[in-house]
């Protein structure tokens, strides 16, 4: 190959590397520890205090374990805060397994319906290949969670605890996905051979019945009603018998989900600000509210988040948790993780470039519990509740610098009442449809 790497060039690379003392020290350190540990700047970590001018207290840290359920955990963690505050509880946890069960069932139906809508697409074409790649992914987005809660309600964890397959979902997902792909082939072939819509829906119903059986064997069967007893901090007992999940949600949580607004910061060339967006073929509940977002400047987003925190309510958010992520020290901060200094490079990506060129996207959902407002009236750090257990970060919590928030937070959900009138007016715009593979359609897991 005329433009291949020559041995003379290799010799030059080696000479340049070995002539720099910093390279040799960095290489020695990196052989014994992870790159994140080697790149950690103790001064940077030290400069992010673990104290906040606005700080909401919550219950025990939760743990999604070896599953991609962060979007469920974080959303339910915002719910549990409201329940604990309303009923004076020391701790409370919702059943993530309950939402997980119905998410899988609804995703199966959503995928099979998508198969019937794309019969003209070649199997090896981009659209069908994309839909077929991960129809039962553990991940999700806020509107997908909201659609499940509106339909099925919620239950306490003790009413439907985790199963082995919910805490370690790899093989569970593998076996169910294989069966679902077989079902898709069957439906596609029957449709292309001329079977009626009614016959296809009857066939799909039987498939979903089988899928329900596989889900129930794996996760257990969700309760239709349950009993619950709470004891609050003052030793007062609250008891319910035979309550349904939908009744439990309305009575004990009561958040109006239609008033929760998803805001994104995607400063990319192909996504003008102050516009409403949706993503084709993104969802789980077929009859649920379509996934939709309002694209706003990051400062506008932070204003709404701070207003909600000051009013005593946590905030669900999605970010790229892989970028400059100091899991051992519990920090999300570019200045604390000197990756660029370690390699003697300088990443010049803009946030929009990262999105457009596939270097970054939302991949994890967490909860904002606090913020520090400095003497200039500006936020400089944020308190984060994660769902990786108490042994990760700082007893399960993280601190994000404000500069990291600017670069790597992509989505937040706030109550409509914390938006100004000008922003609220933008919500009435028609939705701009994005392709299924657009980075705004990435799932948090």
Break the fold down into its secondary structure elements and pairings.
Layout: H1 7-18, H2 21-30, H3 35-39, H4 42-46, E1 54-55, H5 70-87, H6 96-117, H7 126-133, H8 142-152, H9 164-167, H10 170-192, H11 197-219, E2 226-231, E3 237-243, H12 245-253, E4 260-264, E5 276-279, E6 293-295, H13 298-310, E7 315-319, E8 325-326, E9 331-332, H14 339-343, H15 351-356, E10 364-373, E11 379-385, E12 397-401, H16 402-408, E13 409-415, H17 421-426, E14 432-434
Parallel strand pairs: 4-6, 5-14, 9-12
Antiparallel strand pairs: 1-10, 2-3, 4-13, 5-6, 7-10, 7-13, 8-9, 10-11, 11-12
Helix pairs in contact: 6-10, 6-11, 10-11
Characterize this entry briefly:
The protein has helices at 7-18, 21-30, 35-39, 42-46, 70-87, 96-117, 126-133, 142-152, 164-167, 170-192, 197-219, 245-253, 298-310, 339-343, 351-356, 402-408, 421-426; strands at residues 54-55, 226-231, 237-243, 260-264, 276-279, 293-295, 315-319, 325-326, 331-332, 364-373, 379-385, 397-401, 409-415, 432-434. The chain is an alpha+beta fold and 445 residues long.
């Amino acid at each position: 190959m005329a433009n291949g790497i020559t041995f003379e060039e290799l010799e030059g690379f080696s000479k340049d590397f070995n002539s720099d003392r910093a390279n040799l020290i960095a290489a020695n350190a990196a052989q014994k520890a992870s790159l994140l540990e080697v790149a950690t700047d103790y001064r940077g970590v030290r400069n992010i205090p673990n104290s906040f001018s606005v700080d909401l207290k919550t219950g025990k840290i939760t743990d999604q374990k070896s599953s991609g359920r962060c979007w469920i955990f974080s959303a339910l963690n915002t719910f549990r805060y409201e329940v604990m505050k309303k009923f004076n509880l020391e701790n409370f946890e919702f059943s993530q397994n309950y939402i997980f069960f119905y998410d899988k069932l609804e995703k199966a139906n959503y995928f099979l319906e998508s198969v019937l809508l794309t019969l003209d697409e070649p199997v090896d074409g981009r659209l069908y290949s994309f839909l077929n790649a991960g129809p039962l992914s553990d991940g999700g987005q806020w509107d997908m969670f909201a659609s499940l809660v509106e339909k099925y309600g919620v239950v306490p964890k003790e009413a439907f605890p985790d199963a082995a397959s919910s805490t370690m979902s790899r093989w569970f997902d593998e076996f169910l996905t294989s069966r679902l792909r077989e079902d898709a082939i069957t439906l596609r072939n029957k449709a292309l051979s001329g079977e009626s819509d009614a016959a296809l829906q009857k066939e799909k119903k039987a498939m979903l019945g089988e899928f329900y059986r596989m889900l129930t064997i794996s996760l257990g069967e969700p309760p239709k009603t349950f009993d619950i007893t709470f004891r609050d901090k003052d030793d007062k007992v609250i008891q319910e018998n035979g309550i349904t999940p939908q009744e439990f949600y309305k009575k004990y949580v009561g958040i109006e989900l239609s008033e929760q607004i998803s805001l994104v910061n995607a400063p990319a060339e192909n996504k003008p600000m102050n516009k409403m967006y949706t993503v084709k073929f993104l969802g789980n509940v077929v009859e649920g509210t379509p996934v939709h977002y309002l694209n706003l400047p990051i400062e506008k987003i932070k204003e709404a988040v701070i207003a909600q925190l000051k009013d005593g309510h946590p905030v669900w958010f999605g970010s790229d948790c892989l970028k400059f992520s100091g899991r051992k020290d519990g920090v999300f901060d570019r200045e604390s993780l000197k990756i660029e200094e370690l390699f003697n490079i300088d990443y010049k990506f803009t946030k929009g470039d990262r999105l457009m060129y596939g270097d970054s996207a939302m991949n994890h959902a967490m909860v904002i519990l606090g913020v520090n407002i400095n003497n200039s009236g500006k936020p400089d750090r944020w308190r984060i509740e994660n769902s990786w257990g108490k042994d990760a970060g700082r007893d399960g919590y993280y601190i994000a610098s404000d500069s990291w928030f600017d670069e790597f937070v992509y989505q937040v959900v706030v109550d409509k009442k914390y938006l100004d009138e000008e922003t609220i007016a933008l919500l009435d715009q028609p939705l701009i449809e994005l392709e299924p593979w657009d980075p705004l359609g990435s799932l948090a897991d």
